[in-house]
Structure formats: C-alpha cells, structure tokens
Write a structure and sequence with these properties.
- The N terminus is likely disordered.
- The strands form three sheets. An eight-stranded parallel β-sheet has the order 1-4-5-6-7-8-9-10. The protein has a two-stranded antiparallel sheet with strand order 2-3. A two-stranded parallel sheet has the order 11-12.
- It has twelve helices and twelve strands.
- It has two domains: about 35 residues; about 325 residues, TIM Barrel (Alpha-Beta Barrel).
- Helix 5 packs parallel to helix 6, helix 6 packs across helix 7 and helix 11 crosses helix 12.
- By secondary structure, it is of the alpha/beta class.
- The structure holds zinc ion.
- The site of zinc ion (ZN) has 4 residues, from loops.
- The site of zinc ion has 4 residues, from loops.
C-alpha cells in the first residue's frame, strides 16, 4: 500500500512536471513568436528578449489601454522623448541623411515594451507640434512649455511675456481637454548654456511659466543644469504654485537629489545621469519610489565608455546615419525603445531586477502625470 501510494505520488509529480514543462514550452514559443514579429529587431546581436524582456499583449496592442501588470515582462513609460527632433525626419546637424522614420521608431517602441511615451515640447511652437503628434496615438502624451535656453521667446516687455504666458496656458488647457497634455515643460534653468539666454532671461521665463502651472495644475517637467541649488531655491520659494514635478536628466550631486525629493519632486534618470562612477553612486541613493526613467532621446544614449555600460544586457543593431535602411536604429540616436538600457544600468547599480526598476518607475509616472489616460 505504502509502495503503491508512493508510486502514485511519484506518478503525480511526474505528470505535474510534464504539464509544467509543456506549459513553459508553449509560453516560450508564443513569446518567441511575438518577440520576433517586428522585423526591426530580428537581427539583434546581443539580445535577451526571451529571458529578461518580451512584449506583452497590453504593450503591443493598439488600443492604448495597456495598464495591466507587466508580469515579469517590463513595461516602461518614457517620460521624456524629443520625438520632434529632426533626426527622426532623417536630418542630422542640418544634413539630410535618410527618409523620415518616426513611424518605425514608434513601432519599435510599442513592440519593445513602451506603455506610454511623453513627447517633450521646448517652445510654444514645438509644444503645439508635440500635441498634434501625441494626438495620433492613445499611448502618446505631451508637454507644453519653454526650455530655459529658449526663454528669449517671452520677449522683452511685460506685455510680451504676459501674452506668451496666455498662449501657453491656452494651449495647455486645450491639450488637457482630451488628456493629451500631462505636464508643463520642459522648463527650468541651465547655466551651462547661457549663450542662448542669460540667467536673468531664464529666471524671468521660468517664473512666468509658474503662472501656467497655477492656472492648469499641471506637474512640472523640469530641466536643471549646473545651477547648484539655484533652481531648487526658486522651486521651494514658489512651492505653493505647482502641484509636483520631476527634475529630468538628473546628473548632479546626492545632496541636491535629496533636496529635490524633500521638496516632493521626483528625479528623472536617463543615460546622461549614468555616465560616471560618481553618477552611479548618486543613483544608488535615490529610492525607486522617487525615480522616473526616461530616454531624453535622441540624446543621452548609454555609451560603451560610460561607467554603467557593463550593466547593459540589451543591445540593438545600429547603422551609421548614412547607411540607414528601413527598420534600423541609428548609432548614437536614442529612441524610446532604448529605455530598457537605462533600466538595466539602474538595476545593475542598485543590485535589483530590471523589472522592479521598470515597474516602480512606471507607477511613479502614472501617479505624477495624472493616470496617463486619454479622455474620449
Ligand atoms: Zn532637459
């Protein structure tokens, strides 16, 4: 009896094991079929779709309702994508190199686990274009705002400034009506590039935009470069005028990161935040529930020379811009799909799973940007 029982148990275990193995192999086949569907990623050289990453039906669907859990498959929100860059129209440093391929870039993004993308606007005109682009897909959102280096567009007089503020506010309100505009930005201060706008012009433009923040309640997508604590001081002095925000492309000190988080703001991390060993030390100190991932594409690619590059697990085949062919990524031109590399470096630096980094950042993005759902 005991022997019989034992053998029944063994049989059961074997049957369960076979069933599990069969389920796994079916899942693996299904995942492989999905994974290799996009021709653009077929020839990935050093790729790990099947182990660390693959599409989920929610990310791949065109309904844009992909808010479900990603399971073990990381889903991402790229909170800063400069999709209006001329590089996605095939023009590099003023030279036309290939035909526009923004549609391919977006296809790669959706197939590669992007759940939502926020298109960055940097001037009034660009913000208008960002809104038009973002309205073409329910998973695309946009910002309205003026970058510190473009603050000359507020003009010289108070009347000019007020008119510009009014135009920005009207555009933001228009874009908020269907849920497409989700942030004010990018705005902030940049002491590394005062040749475009001096510090006083930047400060004037920044403060003017807080009027739009008050009026709309939009969170801020902030740019801060080499300002020490100056931008933070401006933010804390005016803390009651805006709901929240993120200091994107953070590449400063751990002390500033702490102060930013103490002000109730998030810290945005991209390839430019991960260049040096010191950068990685700072990233280690930022809790995942205060961190947002972004690409800042086409800029801020994670390069082989960067301190964190040994953590990168996912490689994409690239071509020189002159040798572009449909479906290829371009060397040094980042795209939203590359956000997984940012997550891999953060995960490697922190010693946690990529999926944990991705999910925390995605949750933060949904929270900060009001749910990221278009209104119908
Ligand atoms: Zn920026």
């Amino acid at each position: 009896m005991v022997v019989l029982l034992r053998s029944t148990v063994v049989n059961l275990i074997v049957i369960i094991a076979i069933a599990i193995a069969a389920a796994f192999s079916t899942a693996a086949r299904a995942s492989a079929a999905l994974v290799f569907a996009p021709s653009s990623v077929r020839s990935v050289v050093r790729y790990s779709w099947s182990t660390s990453f693959s599409m989920s039906s929610s990310a791949a669907g065109s309904s844009g309702e992909g808010d479900g859990e990603g399971g073990d498959k990381p889903l991402f929100v790229d909170i800063g994508a400069n999709l209006l860059s001329e590089m996605y129209q095939g023009t590099y440093r003023g030279k036309e190199r290939h035909e526009a391929d923004l549609d391919d870039v977006l296809k790669r993004a959706w197939a590669g686990g992007l759940d939502r993308i926020i298109v960055t606007g940097g001037t009034l005109a660009e913000s208008r274009e960002a809104l038009v682009l973002a309205r073409t897909d329910s998973r695309l959102f946009s910002t309205v705002g003026v970058h510190p280096t473009r603050c000359g567009e507020f003009g010289d007089t108070d009347a000019d400034r007020d008119a510009h503020v009014e135009a920005l506010a009207e555009l933001a309100e228009e874009g908020m009506r269907d849920g497409t505009v989700v942030a004010l930005g990018e705005l902030g201060m940049d002491y590394a590039r005062t040749s475009f706008c001096d510090v006083e012009t930047q400060r004037r433009g920044f403060l003017a935009q807080l009027t739009v923040a008050e009026r709309t309640g939009l969170p801020l997508f902030l740019h801060n470069r080499e300002t020490g604590f100056d931008l933070l001081d401006l933010l804390t002095e005016n803390r009651s005028r805006f709901s929240g925000g993120v200091v994107h492309s953070f590449d400063d000190t751990a002390d500033l990161a702490v102060a930013i988080m103490d002000a109730g703001l998030y810290v945005g991390i991209n390839g430019c935040s991960l260049k040096t060993a010191e950068n990685l030390d700072v990233v280690r100190t930022i809790p995942l529930d205060r961190m947002l991932l972004e690409t800042d594409c086409p800029w801020c690619d994670v390069r082989a020379s960067h301190a964190g590059s040994n953590h990168v697990r996912t490689a994409f085949p690239t071509k020189q811009e002159k040798k572009w062919e449909r479906g290829s990524c371009i060397k040094s031109r980042y795209e939203p799909v590359h956000i997984i590399q940012v997550a891999e470096v953060v995960a490697g630096a922190k010693g946690v799973e990529v999926s944990v980094v991705a999910e925390a950042s995605r949750r933060n993005a949904y929270k900060l940007f009001g749910g990221l759902q278009k209104k119908h």
